[in-house]
UniProtKB/TrEMBL annotation:
Name assigned to this protein: 11530_t:CDS:1
The species this protein was found in: Acaulospora morrowiae
Amino acid sequence: DWLAGLVDLIDDLLSDIWVLLHNSAGKTVLLMKEVCDDGG
């Protein structure tokens, strides 16, 4: 069933994007903390 395969593919893509967004957000927050610690 190609439809089930397509749904699986989209689900995997969404999971990957979600993980990437979380990682990017985490890095951005860490970067901002470092900048603040340096005195702005």
